[in-house]
Amino acid sequence: MALAREIIKDVYSVGAIDWNRRLFDALILLPDGTSYNSYLVKGSEKVALIDTVDSTMSEVLIENIKEVNIDQIDYIIVNHAEQDHSGTLPRILELFPDAKVLTNPKCKDLLINLLFIPDDKIEVVEDGEEVSLGNKTLKFIYAPWVHWPDTMFTYIVEDKILFTCDFLGSHLATSDLFIEDNIRIYEPAKRYYAEIMMPFRVPHVQRNLKKIRDLDVNIIAASHGPIYNDPSFILDLYDDWASNNVENEVIIPYISMHGSTEEMVRYLTDELIKRGIFVKVFDLTKTDLGDLAMAAVDAATIVVGAPMMLANPHPNVIGPIVLLNALRPKTRFVSLIGSYGWGGRLVESVKELLSNMNVEFIEPVVAKGYPKEEDFRRLDKLADDILKKHKEALKRH
């Protein structure tokens, strides 16, 4: 069913809502589905299509374009080559063989290698270059590493609309064209930031936020999720998430085989709460890793709970730790609690797995077997140490 919707005069949303998708990149859970946003711009002289959609939704895009009732597409703007935004490009070029693909050099190389787009179909645009559609002007702004090296933004100068591709998006399938409820969009937007943008927080997210702040923008239209007709909402959130400021929060991802580590987690959680620290606990046998990533956006401290298994941390702890290491949250402090039977490299292994994070390690608490009175006193000290570190970190901002 076709569903082309006008954003403002002669600018249309022609993308696809994917209500049923639940996994992205064979890794990221999508509890709310997603959308692949594509935008058609009718100028007085020429027509441009900004991004396409995932190949699974090709027919939806094609039907939506037909509904706008155009004879020709002159330019296809590719802001980013990843297939959820470019997958239908070959089909669109078949339907509109005279169209030119406009993109940047890095994206051109990716389109040739990922989708076999002919070299002579692609024209490279420079950072800051403008292309006229008649009464509408498209300006291209390079925005590398949010989240691939090829990303760029497209800005309609007269209408003050910024198309940011993945940047500032959200995995959310909704019938709303625009953000109607800031509370409803908050969690999908934060989850999206945590899973996709957080590794590039410094300097790339911060740098590209400044580029947007320097523009006069009335509408932000990303390639996933609904459109922001109040850009300050998402920009203010990103300013906070991408800053160096942390909150008085501890997250505790853990595994427990026979109850020893779980008892230590329970005790430490209670002690942290008594000290006025907000705590989120994640049993990794049940946790959606997107929830863990989202909680890591603001937390000052991560405490890993891990039992020893065959001289190393339990295997089900390793994956989430590796993920956190790759996401590189602004967390300041890390510690470890857990238990062992006869020995191994529990502490050393966790430190190595988190080597990508710029953090201070707080003295861990590792018990031999089930925790004893001495171990609980060490957990008391760990809670005190965390409180002290938080006070110092929060004072600095």
Automatic annotation (TrEMBL):
GO terms for molecular function: electron transfer activity; FMN binding; metal ion binding; oxidoreductase activity. Pfam families: ODP. It comes from the Archaea. Residues 250-387 form the Flavodoxin-like domain. PROSITE patterns: FLAVODOXIN_LIKE. Transmembrane segments: none annotated. InterPro entries: Flavodoxin/NO_synth, Flavoprotein-like_sf, Metallo-B-lactamas, ODP_dom, RibonucZ/Hydroxyglut_hydro, Rubredoxin-O_OxRdtase. This is FprA family A-type flavoprotein. It comes from Methanoliparum thermophilum. The lineage of its organism: Archaea, Methanobacteriati, Methanobacteriota, Candidatus Methanoliparia, Candidatus Methanoliparales.
